[in-house]
Amino acid sequence: MKYFIANWKTYKSLGEAETWIDSFTGKIRADQKLLDRLNRDEVKIIVCPPFPLLYPLKKKITENNLLLGAQNISHFDEGPYTGEVSGKNLQGIADYVIVGHSERRRYFGESDEILTKKINLSLKYGLQPIFCLDNANQPIPNEAKIIAYEPAKAIGTGDNEPVENVLSFKKSLDLKSTAIFLYGGSVNENNARDYLSQPEINGFLISTASLDPLSFYNIVSLV
Ligand code: PGA
Fold it and tell me: Pick from 10, 20, 25, 118: CA 20 to 30 A from residue 107's CA?
């Protein structure tokens, strides 16, 4: 099983997002090999748009066998927290949620304690968390099953982390055998094959190269 997760961050208007979906799903529908793999659940493609675009894209996403992820979840449960988006708000809309991205840790001060709350609330509301970390000192909450290693220096820089380092990082984590381990950081259509050929690496979290439907498709189609 390989995961391909598109993290759109704050990019894209609704119109741009719809155009992306049409173009990407057009490519997929023309690719029988990939369609078969999606149907057999050998490949999971998860698109993570900004919050307001989740629901408008849901129909097109799900009818094409893709999955929907949110990029964040409040560490508060439902209640008087103006501007927050709770797990309950996302329930039934998103399937996955990104938790602990280095940008959230850095710009929004998300501590290990906050991230554990986010993991628990994700699971409470039926969202599968994708837990990101950029170094081995960041604790992994027990319930986190999908782990994405994203070294901060590799994010958006073109300086992807060599495969050997990703593999030795994984070893140092001592993950459960059921854990799903992803890599993220400047993955593109030229370097993706090196990671995909490793059974120890279960896929990618991709931002820059996911913004263009053709680049993202070119990565997914390497599987
Ligand atoms: P990048 O970002 O693919 O642009 O390096 C990855 C991420 O931030 O998840």
Answer: 20
